[in-house]
Amino acid sequence: MFKAIGYAAQSATAPLAPMTFERRTPRADDVALEVLFCGVCHSDIHQARNEWGFASYPLMPGHEIVGKVTSVGADVSKYKVGDIVGVGCLVDSCRTCEACEANLEQYCLEGPTQTYASRDRVDGTLTMGGYSNAMVVSERFVVRIPEKLDLASAAPILCAGITTYSPLKHFGVKPGDKVGVLGMGGLGHMGIKFAKAMGAEVTLFTRSQAKAEEGRRQGADHVIVSTNENEMKDAAGRFDFLLDTIPVQHDLNPYLNTLRFDGVHILVGLIEPIDPPVHAFNLVAKRRVIAGSMIGGLAETQEVLDFCAEHDITCDIEMLDINNINEAFERVVKGDVKYRFVIDMKTLKA
């Protein structure tokens, strides 16, 4: 084992603070890396504050990690010292179930091992995330960062990027499709970029007229203010897909009415109960579908990074000194960031 440092919460009510801890001795299939950048995801805040009810402490967040390989185990074949790599939301899975064999580790039937606040499948220790100076991860759960990508901007692709890319690809968005993106945050602005790159006609749904210009700057062809009844009425039956990135409870029924028959409303932001209830007629009358999607597996995560390099897609970021992480958490909660904080790990001092 070796000493590492990072920022962690010791309880649901404690602010993040520096902590020294031990990373495991690299195994034969492990890649060790120096963390260069780590994105800040709203999930980090939910977990640190135990808002989902299953946090384990000490809790060191961070699952949008870009780093440089410092050593590799004897069985590692894909990476070498000096390579620039990424680690996303997963660091292990059972590797043998139907989902894992289909490269869908995020849906592992035994439950995947999360990058933080999870238990290592070999030694049972608590996983610690990327708000730290070093990581040790199995080769299978490491991806290569394309040379063309800016390293800091690439970090959020490992969560915000794959979370929006995966469902658009899975449900078959193609050139000419009409895609509505609900919400204009860290997920939403990436969803607009991906749908446009896939050839779709993209419309941003937002509650704020003030975000219309920003939506178009990100690539949206149209903007609908969802609080405007006339605009919502005019949108009835127009869309093939809705990518719903709104992270809080909201009424799905008005949005469902904007879908054509066989249209799909994809939830990627909401993980709470749907409230108010969905009126079944809004589904039955047009054979519409409400679907959900998480992140992607490791093969698809590599695919989205390569897709971003090919299409010049990056995440809009604000660089962060880790000493200001608690203030950054408050700004994320208030929606006061465009659109993702990324920690420069040079600011982490021993």
What can you see in these coordinates?
The chain has 350 residues and is an alpha/beta fold. The chain has two domains: 192 residues, Medium-chain alcohol dehydrogenases, catalytic domain (Quinone Oxidoreductase, Chain A, domain 1, Alpha-Beta Complex), CATH 3.90.180; 132 residues, 3-Layer(aba) Sandwich (Rossmann fold), CATH 3.40.50. It is 23% helix and 26% strand. The protein is built from eleven helices and 17 strands. Strands 3, 4, 5, 8, 9, 16 and 17 form a seven-stranded mixed beta sheet that branches. A six-stranded parallel beta sheet has the order 12-11-10-13-14-15. Strand 14, helix 9 and strand 15 form a beta-alpha-beta unit. Helix 4 crosses helix 5. The longest helix has 14 residues. It is globular, with a radius of gyration of 20 Å.
User: What is the helix tally?
Assistant: 11
Helix content: 10-25%
**Number of strand elements:** 17
Number of domains: 2
Structural class: alpha/beta
Average predicted local confidence, pLDDT: 96
Overall shape: it is globular
The CATH architecture classification of the largest domain is Alpha-Beta Complex
Task: Give the terminus-to-terminus CA distance.
Answer: 17 Å
Q: Low-confidence segments, ≥5 residues, pLDDT <50?
A: none
